[in-house]
Amino acid sequence: MKAAQAYLAAVRNDYDFVIVNGENAAGGFGITRKQFEQLRNAGADVVTLGNHAFDQSEVMELLEETPRLLRPANYPPGTPGLGWHVFEPRGGGRIAVAQLMGRVFLDPLDDPYRAADAILEQLDDSVPIIVDFHAEATSEKKVMGFHLAGRVSAVLGTHTHVTTADEQVFKGTAYITDVGMTGVQNSSIGLAFEEVHSRFDTKLPARYRPAQGRGTVNAVAIELDGRRAVSVRRVRWEHGAEDEG
Ligand SMILES: [Fe+2]
What we know:
Elements: H1 2-11, E1 19-21, H2 33-42, E2 46-48, H3 58-65, E3 69-70, E4 84-87, E5 95-101, H4 112-121, E6 129-134, H5 138-148, E7 154-158, E8 168-170, E9 173-176, H6 193-202, E10 216-225, E11 228-238
Parallel strand pairs: 1-2, 2-3, 5-6, 6-7, 7-9
Antiparallel strand pairs: 4-5, 8-9, 10-11
């Protein structure tokens, strides 16, 4: 959270629109009103969730209050909140953001590919659309990239917490398998090693805690021309490194 806020404060004015995946903002498990407001105040236009969407009970109320917090669109009909929405970026115009969740090694939700098609049917062709595909399996994410290539502005993978080096623009669609996490990199995807190691090693329960240390931001910067992506660039920024000269 500290790294994300510091980075957004430093670069906010360089971008027309900022999307943050915030499903681990509450010490790894979901998001509370406090963290949602901190991210919004730092400059996030939209915060997306994922498989930890409902870890914190406060999120139910928040999802009903604001379209700027999105949960995966392929949850069952009737789930609180929105899975996609159209916003106005700083430079004017419109931009749609959608979140979908994969089904490999995750909850068996509705088909994310058909859910993506259903969203596109409701949007006119000129609206840029950024898809956050929150999924574990690389192949499932790559196939979503293929499914939506030429039809959306970007398919950005989240959830594994580890940045992949496969960013590309294909048929005008920016793609990366995983954006990676903002957090302490010397960790088990954000959690302190000891308890995770103990659980793998002994099979006994242990309460996870967030790793301590300096946070690193992982992100991607995308340039659009209408709905088409022109470029996608990985961003890696270490909190505090600028103070050390
Ligand atoms: Fe996740």
